[in-house]
Each structure stands twice: as C-alpha cells, then as structure tokens.
C-alpha cells in the first residue's frame, strides 16, 4: 500500500485569487468605517477606539481598508492611479494585522479587506516595486531560509545547543516537533526563551523533537509582505522537509509561524497539525502535568498577537459556488467560512496566567479579536521602523492605562517590537514572554 | 486644474507636509463613487470631482487659515469627517477637500448634560463617553459610525432614540464655526463669554443660517466644534456585551426592555404612535428590521443571531413554518425600548405600554421575547453600531418613499407604496425581491410628536449595472407617485437638487431656474442674500439652495 501523504499539495478553491478578482469587493464596499474603528459595541473609550494602525497614523483615507479598496479600483479597473508615490506607501504601510478584516466581517458577508490588501502588495511586488528592505528580506528567505537580515542558514540550529532534543531530521522520531521560528532561532535573547519553552514542555513529559538541519523559516512574512512566490516555495520546501522527517504534529512558540502553517499552508493544501505552545501548555496545566508552585505577585496585561488571535482561526475547507438569490442578494452555497476572528487563540494564554499564583490579569480595552497590532506586522518594522514604533507606542500607552506592571505576550515579533518603546507619557513598560512567567512559577 | 505652487505651499505651511497631499493615490480616494453610497442618482460609474489637494487640519486655527487662503486664491473647499454619501465631497474641479479626521476630541460636561465634540467624534464614541457619566446622545439613523457634529450641524438627523432624545437640530447647543470667509463665530451663549449650554443666546443666534431645518450640508464654512445635549441613561457606564464576533448581545440590562410590537392594521399603527408619544414611556421607538423587507426580515434576524448561517440560508428560513408564522405576525411592526430609571418607573412604563397595546389591539412579538434575540435587539438599537447592516443584504441601498409627515397621512399609503415596490421586484431583477414593504424609520422622530421620518430601503448591488439602473428607475417612479399623491419630494431625492448627476455643482443660473418655480420662492431668494453676506466668493458648492432675487439679477 502506498504511503499516505500528509500533504495534499493542491491549493484550495479561491487561493489563486488575483487583484482583478477583487473588483466586486472594491465596488461593494460601503464606506461604513468598520475598518477604522473597533466594532462599536466593543469600544470602551474614544482614546482607544480605533482599530487600523495605518489610517490611525497616516490619517488619509487611502491608508484604510476602504481606501485600499478604492485604490485598487483606481489602479486596476480605472487606471486613474499608478503603482507609485503614495499608492505604494499606502499599500506597504499595512501591517496585515487583520483588524480591518474583523471590523468589516462583523457586518459584511462578502468582503475580504485583508486578502485584498495583500493582493495589492503582491501586484506591487510582481512589478518589482517593494521597498528595498523587503526585497532583501525575501532574497534572504530564498538564500538563507530566513527573512531576518544578516542571519545565516548555517547558524539556524544554534539555539538548540545543549538541549536534549531529538533531531527528527535523522532517524529519531517525536510526537511533537518544536518549530521555533526565525526570531527564537536567531535572536540571542529569544534563544534563551526557546530553550525555556523546550525545557518546560519536556518537564511536562512532552515527547519533543526538532528539525535540526531541516529547520527553516515558515515564510509567513513573505506572504504578508506580498512575496507570494517566495512564500509558496518556502511552504513547499517545509512540507517536503516535514514529509521526509515524518512530522506528525508541530508545536511553535511563534504566532507568525502558527498562522502561516495553520492558515496559509492549508490554503496551499499543506495540512499538518500545528499548535501554539500556549495551547499545549494550557492543556498541560489543566491535566496537572505542569504545576505552579511559586507565587509571582505581579499585575500584568496580555497583548493578543494578531496571528495567534484573530488570524489564528482554523482553516476550513470550502468548495462552494457563488450565486445570487432574491434577484440581488449575493451569497455562496454552502455558507463560506467567514473568519471573523471568533475562533482565534485567546483563552489558552489567559488560562495559563490565571493558573499562576499571584498573577493578576488586567485587560486592555482592545483585546481578543479587536487587539491593537504591535506594529511589527507586514514587514513594517523592517522598512519603516518609525511608523512601526508609533504603533507599538500606542499599545504600550494602552497597556499602561490599565495600571499593569508588565505586558505579557506570546509572540516574539510582538515582544521585540514592544520592548523599549516609550508610551505617550515618555515612560516604559516591561514586556514579558509568557514562558518566562511560566518557568518562574514552576 | 492644479493648484498654484504658492497656494499649495501656503497650505503646507499651515498643516505641515504630512497633512496635505495632491498625490493621485490620495486625491482619487476622495471622490465619492455614487453608486456605492446611498445617494446614487447618476450612472453607475459616476464620481464626484477630484479634489486638487486633500488637507487634514488639526485645529480650528488651522481651519481658519485654510479657509482664508481659499478665499485669497479663490479655490472652493469642503470639509467632511466620515464621508458618508456624496454630501461631504466637493463639487468642482477647482476645489480642495478638508478631511477632519485629526479633530476627534470629546469633552463631556456631565453637570450641564452636554458634550463638546469635534468633527471626527462619531456617535459611537460620543455615546460611550457619555454613558460613563450616566448619559447618552441622539444617534441619527445613519448609525453610530457617522460624525455627531456633521449630523447635528449639517443634516436632518433623526434616529431610533429621537422620541426620547430629540433629533439632531434639537440637540445642537453652542458651536464654533469658521465662516466661508474665514471669520470665526461662536454661537449662542458661547459668543457672549458664556459656556456652551445654549445655541440661541444671549450671544449671536444664527441658528437659522447655521443649522436650519435640513442643515447646510457643509456649504457654509466649517463647523469645528459643537456642544450637543446629552440625555439621561439609566444603564451601566458601559453596556456589557456577551457573545463573540459577529454576534454581540447586551448582557444584564435588566432595567431595559426591548419589544417588537405587532399591529393589526396601519390605522392601529398610526394610533399606536400617537398614544406612545403622548404616554411618554418610550426610550426608543423605531421600525428597524423591516428594512430588510417584509418577507425576509425574520430570516435575517435568524442569520444575524446564528453566525453559522449565511444568506444562502434565507430561502429555507423563509419557508420555516415557525418563522413564517412569526414573520406574518410582524407584518406591521415596530421595535420599542423601555428603560426604567427606577423599578417603579419601569413598572409604570410597562403597565402604560401594555394598556396602549390592549387599546389598539396590538401585541408583543413572541419571537423577539427570546432572550438572545431581545439582547441582540437591545444592543443594536441602543448603540446603533451595525449601520452597515443597511448594506449587508446587497452591498448598497437607497432610501425611497422617504417621508417626513404626519403619521396619519403617511400610514394609510404604506400598502400602496409597498405594492409599487413589489411590482418592481417582480418585473425588474435589478431590485432585490424582499416583499415590497421595506419601510423603516423613527416613531415621533421629528419634533417629538406625531411625525415620522421613514423610508423604504431599496437594496441593490453596487457591482451590478442593471441593479443600479433598475433601482434608480424604481425610485424615480416612486418620486413621481409621491408627487401625484401630494406628498412632496422623497427625501432621498433632496440631493438631486444640489448636485448634477455627474457629481458637479449646479450653477447659479440653474438654481435660479429651479427655485424660482417653487411654492415659496422667497425662501430661496432670502437664502441667496444670506449666502451673499456670509459666503461672498461662493466657495462651498451648491448644496445651499438659493435663487437670485429678481432685483439683483445681472448685478454680479
């Protein structure tokens, strides 16, 4: 009997969508401001009521999802605007954080602003018009298998030195393969945290391995920044590596990797079970395989990473048809997955924090599917750090308003981008990886 | 017609380089694609003219400087905040657009029950700040994502809670107003070193000029700050929400009740309106969900309250025996919210309400008494946060049979209007087939007593040329029918008098020809004199309706 492949490798219907396929959406957008504000039922103040970092910072309508719908129409359909000047600025200064997508889908059934924003980026990339820093990152992905500048493939597995981890690239097997992602693999500070993740999971009895020489970038950032070809190549390379290594389940501490594997790979037909480390740890805490013995006595607030939260919903296969009923009501048969952020990973990290003695969680105003982006998404921290920092500062300001002593998060990109950032009043707040709290309390 | 470099640099000096743009990626984004909005009346690809620059002022002082520069260089300007429909956009090639997005502050004066708001403060945020102080505000039917200042100073502004909070013009207190020539006026008490609490005086009282009945639609300079009245809110500082996106429901508002009332006839409906207003028991009264259409409204509420369902489920839901029965029961309906300021108060209101229902033979819909559906309805109506449900069905809609009239005049015509719409649904595939009657609107929305502000929603697909044309043709026929019935102009068509179908301003000669023939042409000639006094360079478009007085023709 032929060995059953984990990977179907056939893109799902709709994945091939090009910018031109978004014409109906561009024209059906109703300028409701759902892409500028947190859903109004959820807004708790005027100060923290906005959801899109891009239009919040730049203010011109072009920098909102609504504006980008009109921009797409102006460029592709009508030819009024070219891929140059502020068009490119608005296209690339989008964190691809998906806040607009949630705001839109609260009421609209047939618009996909995030996918449209990325399609604009992809077209600009095809024309060779991406910022040079992003081109360099994509080039690095192809050559060094990471989008981090200056990182080398040869050093990819350095983080695992000294750990007793099974290397599944050889003959060893493991129930879970630890997929660190580029930040945990290369950043010297985050390497320590990656080790902590591994030690904590091992302590709880998880059968854990890593990919050794087969480990590489997930490529998710390439997708977010419009480098579709590079992303697809990386995804297929990973799929082949996992196939070779006999990977069954992946656990990652990186929210970007989580999203890429769970959602973007699934669109390519690459289906592998992936969990974020917080999901696994929360399960281990519930199963009493991890027991917290120490009291930490700290008030914290939790920052929901975009790619773990609203973009972390599971992929659902759908193979339906588009139709109109009642003369003019546009719909799909059967119902098409909506991805409104409902089923993202919000509870697991909160359950962990609730289980640690002495940790008091004080929520910010914008949480869960309406979380404010840390600013690092969409490659913005690479090519426009001033803008990225401004978005991070807004988040630190919001966190400070809670009275918490630290921001806890579960994504290395968020951790890096929020660390050392001044709030509105010129002060700072500690940013803590959730694994550090876990390890301290064990 | 590009701006002179001298003018552009002068604007740049006022707002800073990052707050002005003439890049086509920005300027083309400030053209209203009228087929996508609820004010479509031209071809499907009509756009308002492209502004020569888009400017983002950050203060009243900056607005004043911009306006003075526009007068100096004779360039038209228009300010807008949330850009709902064509009204906020310019109407000439020689114009700049002011986007007021940077001015969004809200100050609540709880003691005096007012809020001072800037242009980009939207209903949703004004209300949330007011509720922290046990207060709320009128939110116009357009929804809480629209500018409170624009609705209050520039347009009609009635909404679901107007029976309790009044309409926009009734809520306008003091204002800070940059006139079309750049002078700043602070109206009412504000202009006499007082506070914001009164729009009439003892300071200058230009309410008739500044505000009027329909508002000046952004054609008389730029309003940079206003005070609005706030009203008592007996609920918590923030309405607790349960559920996950996209289904949000109010949680635990025990002293607030939401009902849907089913009437046996339109006569009972009209009489019910009168009695409800007289009894003064309603916190909110609005015919809301019928906007989706008589035949499918319950199916839509099912879909909204069961997120796993989508529009493809409508046909099955419409045929569901229980829902069918409920839908038929709600043929003539209205949504009502009662709010108790004390237990005794709520008890009284419930009793009075029940007595009225009994008197007119109406009853509460059992469907809407289901907890989740009641809580969804409460949140929907109290926050008006889902304005976009107006567009959900087909992506676009246009108000039709728009009527502000005595309910005893309007209600008897409802079935005839519904039949007219149903005929179009059956004969033209461009109009969504939802059951004819898709009326929605306020109870006692205007001036408090006895009048309605309602319209039929005509749902159409902004991506479908036939749909755009068919819906427009239907609306034109309804307008003719209304004229025949002596009902006056459909208020959805008011905009056609102020901007050409191609998106450009009317000339004075064209307005002269239009307004010299109206029933009271003196009104238009009076407006002309006002405009000449306040806006001597005619820099703000043709939404201000004027006719040149005969004695002044040819003088300018």
**Biggest sheet of chain B: strands, sense, closure?**
7 strands, antiparallel
Assembly annotation:
heterodimer
**Main β-sheet description of chain A:** 5 strands, parallel
Q: What would you call the shape of chain B?
A: globular
What order do the strands of the largest sheet of chain A run in, or round the barrel if closed? Answer: 1-3-2-4-5
Any low-confidence stretches of chain B, pLDDT <50, length ≥5?
Answer: none
The number of distinct β-strands of chain A equals 11
State the helical fraction of chain A: 40-55%
Radius of gyration computed on alpha carbons of chain A: 21 Å
Strand adjacency order, main sheet of chain B: 17-14-16-15-19-20-18
Mean pLDDT of chain A: 95
What does the model show?
The complex is a heterodimer of chains A (about 450) and B (about 550). By secondary structure, chain A is α/β, with parallel strands linked by helices. Chain A has a domain at about 150-285: Rossmann fold (3-Layer(aba) Sandwich). Helices cover about 40% and strands about 10% of the residues of chain A. Chain A contains 18 helices and eleven strands. Chain A has helices spanning about 25-30, 55-60, 65-75, 85-90, 100-105, 115-125, 130-145, 180-185, 190-205, 220-225, 230-245, 255-270, 275-285, 345-355, 380-385, 385-400, 410-420, 435-440; strands at about 165, 175-180, 210, 250, 275, 300, 320-325, 330-335, 360, 405-410, 430-435. In chain A, the strands form three sheets. A five-stranded parallel sheet of chain A has the order 1-3-2-4-5, sandwiched between helices. Chain A has a four-stranded parallel sheet with strand order 9-6-10-11, sandwiched between helices. In chain A, strands 7-8 form a two-stranded antiparallel sheet. In chain A, a hairpin with a 3-residue loop joins strand 7 (about 320-325) and strand 8. Chain B has about 550 residues and is α+β, with helices and mostly antiparallel strands. Chain B folds into four domains: about 5-100, 2-Layer Sandwich (Uridine Diphospho-n-acetylenolpyruvylglucosamine Reductase, domain 2); about 105-230, 2-Layer Sandwich (Uridine Diphospho-n-acetylenolpyruvylglucosamine Reductase, domain 3), CATH 3.30.465; about 255-495, Vanillyl-alcohol Oxidase, Chain A, domain 3, CATH 3.40.462; about 510-550. Helices cover about 35% and strands about 15% of the residues of chain B. Chain B has helices at about 5-15, 25, 60-75, 125-130, 150-155, 160-165, 170, 205-210, 265-280, 295-305, 315-320, 320-330, 345-360, 370-385, 390, 405-410, 415-425, 465-485, 510-515, 520-535, and strands spanning about 20, 55, 75-80, 95-100, 105-110, 115, 135, 170-180, 185, 220-230, 230, 240, 250, 255-260, 285, 335-340, 365, 395-405, 440, 455-460. Chain B has a seven-stranded antiparallel sheet with strand order 17-14-16-15-19-20-18. A five-stranded antiparallel sheet of chain B has the order 5-6-10-8-9. In chain B, strand 5 (about 105-110) and strand 6 (about 115) form a beta hairpin. Chain B is globular and about 70 Å long.
